[in-house]
Write a structure and sequence with these properties.
The chain is about 25% helix and about 25% strand. It has 16 helices and 26 strands. Helix 11 runs parallel beside helix 12, helix 12 crosses helix 13 and helix 15 (about 605-625) packs across helix 16 (about 685-695). The structure holds dioxothiomolybdenum(VI) ion. Dioxothiomolybdenum(VI) ion binds near residues 244, 350, 352, 354 and 509.
Length: about 700
């Protein structure tokens, strides 16, 4: 099929706005007469507030109001759960009572004329507590089975699964590995911190918010305040990174609206970097035991994957830690169990390939340990255990290009030159290591809507309430629309980030291209056919000119039954080269090659950029990121970008190769795309850890692999 725009490496249509400062982010909107809010947060992790003295704050210069649980308006907090919210438990209610359930919980709000006055007055609020017993040390909690577990797509899944006789098979296995892998808490740390501007007119509210799901913001805040969601306008045209932290509507959005209601003025609330560690979610600390059993010729006979993760005391957040172990490799005997450790912390949330990247880390490290124990090449071991179907769901794959990915990535990397012996490769004083891993992520597709409006001048306006936190939604949707309409790309304008626009799923789970893209295609197709039919001509611009008035069409797309007939995932293979300084223990990632079977690629330039970004995120996870938790009180002493290390340009490998293997999957969705937002993070942490083993002979099973762990 020849295409004009789909599949072309088109540069970002909003690039000029971004580089000239024309793109406006939540905190940057000029709202007349705006006041500023600052949050006072608890300094204990559990207990009750016995007194709050806000007199000094109230009398401080510029202060308009100080809200605490004693004087804040009562909020109805009607039941509401979006698919991004945990199914079990109840969200934090702010300023409604004297209970403290987490370190850093909002316990007062100061509204003042300026941000500095609000922040200063917040320090003047004096609070005394009756501390309760706080659970803040994740290593001392006995994990429990979740009440109910759902996938990130909302379908129920068991927390404990068994096929065959895993314990027996493990006991009888000729070769086995049995290890525990730990990933510490990590925070999203987008460069744009969370911000909300709230403005009331009667019982109508406008929110300028950093959000990955504007549709849900209106519904959540409507439920909290007891007003119809239709009364709330949510605007979020640009998002400066999010990685999952803006999927839920967190309590600070409620606080901004509450402050605005009491102050009777628009209120702007911007979280500080430090506050980003106490209220917008995080990747939970996970502990995963994996045991693999195999025959001497490298056939897996048993997989036991027993994992637990932290959650809050008031909501059960659980992520897909076990998915990879259940179906990525062929194995007749598999046991998986997922448990939760409730802590006095706010609820963790989706972060960069949530669940998959963590579970896959444990599995793919264990596979490497098994390969070493067997004396079989790690790629060969995976090839010997390549499944014919999804053995967990007993379904065929809609497409699965793992073999092709191993082949092309290994070839590009030069894997055949690898000496399997640890510490056998050097570059001067540096120890060189090569490692690899398999990657997988679900090909998500959810109901979405879009509207196309064609104008007599031959231009088109296409809208959908999607987000663009960086992947290039503006551009990719413009490509799909221009392609479908048959109009020049500069005559098509795609808009997003407004909850009055047609509904979309959350901008997460790598499903925007699949879902919103299919809706845009459907709406444009309808509008085009309508215009051509009514004008009775074949050229759209001609038709629109003749009609002399706008032609509008909306379309909704809904997944059919493909999801129950096929197992649908993106698969990939990643290879990395590390160099480890034997004296300093420092690890540098020198090269990464990733090959992915991701269906149709709408824009290879942006898809590559997505993948290199994901790879760099994986490097952060492997080598740097760690939200240190003080076990005594739940505080995060490194809640800043100085001591919480994230990869910078100098940490990115010189060479990052992204290969999309040819894959034509007619089942996943009308566009045939699988999404590349998260797959590229998956597989990088184990590939790095496996390469470090190859370089040094040391197995590190606790992330991040900082120099102290290699000395
Ligand atoms: Mo992504 S963690 O689904 O924003």
């Amino acid at each position: 099929m020849t295409t004009a725009f789909i599949g072309k490496p088109i540069s970002r249509v909003d690039g000029w706005q971004k580089v000239t400062g024309g793109a406006r982010y939540a905190a940057e909107f000029d709202v007349p007469n705006v006041a500023y809010a600052a949050i006072v947060r608890s300094t204990i992790a559990s207990g009750r507030i016995t007194s709050i003295d806000s007199a000094a704050a109230e009398h401080a210069l510029g202060v308009i109001a100080v809200l605490t649980h004693r004087n804040a308006p009562r909020l109805v907090y009607r039941a509401h759960k979006g698919v991004v919210d945990p199914v079990v438990g109840e969200r934090l209610h702010v300023l409604q009572d004297d209970r403290v359930m987490q370190q850093g919980q909002p316990i007062a709000l100061v509204v003042a004329e300026t941000m500095e006055q609000a922040s200063h007055a917040a320090t003047l609020v004096r609070v005394t507590y009756a501390p309760g017993t706080a659970t803040t040390d994740v290593t001392s909690v006995e994990p429990v089975l979740p009440t109910q577990q759902k996938t990130d797509q909302g379908s129920t899944q068991p927390s404990e699964t068994r096929r065959g006789e895993p314990e027996k098979a493990l006991a009888a296995a000729e070769v086995k590995v049995d290890q525990t892998y730990v990933i510490p808490r990590e925070n999203h740390n987008p460069i744009e911190t969370h911000a909300t501007i709230a403005s009331w007119e009667g019982d109508r509210l406008t929110l300028w918010d950093k959000s990955q799901w504007v549709g849900n913001v209106g519904e959540e805040i409507g439920a909290v305040f007891g007003i119809p969601a239709q009364n709330i306008r949510v605007l979020s045209p640009f998002v400066g990174g999010a990685f999952g932290s803006s999927l839920r509507t967190w309590p600070h959005v409620t606080l901004a609206a509450l402050g605005a209601r009491v102050a009777k003025r628009p209120v702007k609330l911007v979280l500080s970097r430090r506050e980003m560690y106490y209220g917008v979610g995080f990747r939970p600390h996970t502990v995963q035991r994996i045991a693999l059993g195999a025959s001497r010729d490298g056939r897996l006979s048993a997989i036991v994957h027993d994992a637990h993760q932290e959650t809050s005391s008031y909501e059960e957040y659980s992520e897909a830690l076990l998915d990879s172990s259940r179906f990525v490799h062929s194995c007749p005997n598999v046991y998986t169990r997922h448990r939760l450790a409730p802590m006095n912390v706010h609820t963790p949330t989706w972060m960069r390939a949530p669940g998959e990247v963590s579970g896959n880390f444990a599995l793919e490290c264990a596979m490497d340990e098994l390969a070493a124990a067997l004396g079989i090449d790690p790629v060969e071991l995976r090839l010997r255990n390549e499944p014919k179907i999804d053995e967990f769901r007993n379904l065929p794959f809609s497409s699965r290009s793992t073999r092709e990915c191993y082949r092309v990535a290994a070839e590009r990397f030069g894997w055949s030159l690898r000496n399997p012996k640890p510490r056998s490769m050097r570059d001067g004083r540096w120890l060189i290591g090569w490692g690899m891993a398999t990657a997988n992520y679900p090909a998500n597709y959810a109901p979405a809507s879009a509207k196309a409006r064609l104008l007599p001048d031959g231009t088109a306006e296409v809208t959908s309430a999607a987000s663009d936190m960086g992947p290039g939604t503006y551009t990719s949707m413009t490509q799909v629309a221009a392609e479908t309409l048959g109009l020049p790309i500069e005559r098509v304008k795609f808009s997003l980030g407004d909850n009055v626009m047609p509904r979309t799923p959350p901008h997460g789970g790598s499903m925007t291209m699949a879902s919103v893209g299919s809706a845009v295609q459907a709406a444009c197709r309808k509008a085009r056919e309508d215009a051509l039919g009514r004008a009775g001509v074949n050229d759209l611009a001609d038709a629109l000119h003749r009609l002399g008035q706008p032609v509008e069409a909306s379309a909704d797309v809904t997944p059919g039954d493909a999801g129950s007939r096929f197992s649908m995932h993106v698969f990939g293979a990643v290879f990395v080269e590390v160099a480890v300084d034997p004296e300093l223990g420092e690890t540098r990632v020198r090269r990464v090659v990733g090959a992915y079977g991701a269906g149709r690629i709408v824009n290879p330039k942006m898809a590559r950029s997505q993948c290199t970004g994901g790879m760099i995120g994986g490097i952060g996870m492997a080598l740097m990121e760690h939200s240190v938790v003080d076990p005594r009180n739940g505080r995060v002493p490194n809640a800043n970008l100085c001591e919480y290390a994230v990869p910078l340009h100098g940490d990115a490998p010189r060479a990052m190769d992204v290969i999309f293997v040819e894959e034509n999957d007619p089942h996943v969705n009308p566009l045939g795309v699988k999404g590349v937002g998260e797959i590229a993070t998956v597989g990088i942490p184990p590939a790095i850890v496996n390469a470090i083993y190859h370089a040094t002979g040391k197995r590190v099973r606790e992330l991040p692999v900082t120099p102290d762990k290699l000395l």
